[in-house]
Amino acid sequence: MTAPHRVPRAMRSRVPLIGSAIHLRRDPLGFVQEIRRSGDVATFKLGPRTVYVVNHPELIRQMLVTEADKFHKGVMFEKARILARNGLFTSEGDFHTRQRRLIQPAVRASEIAGYTRTMREQVDELVTAWADGDVVRMDQATFPLALGIVTRVLFSTDLDPATAAEVHETLPVLLRGLGQRALAPFDFLDRLPTPTNRAFDRALPRFRSVIHRLIREHRLDLGQHPDLLTSLLQAADPDTGETMSDEQVYDEVTSMIIAGSETTSAAMAWAAYLLATHPDVQRAVQAEVDEVLQGRPVRYEDLGRLQFTHRVVKETLRLYPTTWMLMRRPLEDVDLGGYRIPADAMVLFSIFALHRDPALFPDPERFDPDRWLPDRARTMPPHAYLPFGAGPRGCIGGAFSHTEAAVFLATLAQRHTLVSVSDEPVRIVTTLIPMPGPISLGVRSRAGSRSPEAVIR
Ligand code: HEM
């Protein structure tokens, strides 16, 4: 006889009917940490729906890796289809597997080596514009940087100012709209003429038309641009030789822009904030960068020697993993750790809550890059660290964004020291991504740290 299933502890909602929607919207990070304490699997009500929350790293791994084929990505991603349609981020099944095989080569390490120069040039342009004594709003500076990098890597040519402005203006509106829709307790809320919905509806056709135009232009002189979009247009299925239609390329490009801009921007802003508030760590990054680079611009080959800088990036993504919750939808009834989760249930897991679980990370709120020293990292429970997810739906841009953040820190550390200008801790603003609230940081130039003749253009 099989053992009876365990009953997950239910979190009581404070407002009947709406369930925990208000709590979740007001304080999502507090909410996911509170529910983490309710057990390996817990439930709460979101409107009429029962949401299952999976809190144990082994059970999360079961969903993402060992039993990934029993799950689809769920309502959050279904709603993202309005923007990313059937791209890698949102597609499912055999189609997703085929697309992933086609796209993966364009973001492997050997390609990223080529993108590093673009990353460095973009970072350089930003940080050389900062002068000694400036106060920089880091949360506002890193989004255009990350978007500039991902669009440059995709489209190689400089976007003309009008095109760049279209993308820069519309994308944040679209991302904000998706964030709200993912957790709306009722679907009809997506269609109400609220300011967020109306702004979303206006931004979407503008964004689409820009991306379609860029694809058409690339198709016309295919092969002339050594960039990621060309790799996508040329990628052919090894079995059938089939390539992607312009519509499919649109979906993939959009998926990469959505998945790769705000995430990496938040990671860089948090890293800068953590350096400014931990001067000893900042000094150690500067010492490493000075020793390895000897004043010249960072190259891909240098990154392997910037071990401490890497640990800073890793630890930043532990504390601020840029996805505070993700979803899955089981295709059939599944057993997770003795709990039965019914087919089609809404299942949620929080990488943010996982990364701050004291049972997994000692002193979890402490920013401690050296917890990633090999000897200490070995003692960490397996699968506890998942900033990029795992398994067949794990992030395709993990190496890309890790490289980008390391290039950002190395280039910044060569030129400037960042200092806090306020004792107020930075607020975490959460839509889909835990974004830093206003971060104002002071810039102190490290004059003479880099000789002008060493600048490679
Ligand atoms: C710090 C930066 C980033 C973080 C923390 C991050 C995190 C993640 C996570 C957690 C997932 C898995 C979602 C799930 O399992 O439901 C994911 C998927 C994905 N990411 Fe990233 N990402 C980052 C940057 C990027 C970049 C730069 C790109 C593209 C250039 C990218 C493209 C994608 C795509 C296409 C997927 C979907 C993969 C699939 O389902 O096959 N990401 N990302």
TrEMBL record:
Transmembrane segments: none annotated. The keyword Iron applies. It comes from the Bacteria. Pfam families: p450 (PF00067). Coiled coil: none annotated. Keywords: Heme, Iron, Metal-binding, Monooxygenase, Oxidoreductase. PROSITE patterns: CYTOCHROME_P450. The keyword Heme applies. Belongs to the cytochrome P450 family. This is Cytochrome P450.
